[in-house]
What does this fold into?
Amino acid sequence: MHPNQLRVDRMRRAMEAERLDALVLRLPENVLLLSGYWPMLGVTTLLFPLEGEPRLCIPEYYAPEATPTLWGGEVHWFRFGDLWSRDALEETKDFLAASGSGKGWKRIGYEA
It folds into this structure.
């Protein structure tokens, strides 16, 4: 068990109580609390499912800082911040669509 398993378990119990299948998080403090990674910009997205491993969408230039701090899960690295990169919102939209495809999720929470 990693040192923050209790935090992860508490979140999943709260999600069960609210009947949420997944959470989409972008605020840096929320990404940190459930992944171990503190994003510098608000373009990182954490998809935290009730069951299974979390998935993160992170700009690739943060790989050296992010990789050693992540608790696990799958990471989608994307190019960001130069003339050849895609729009970050389009990247996030495609990431979320691919991540949720075939899951049958009914209720997804987000930061409002």
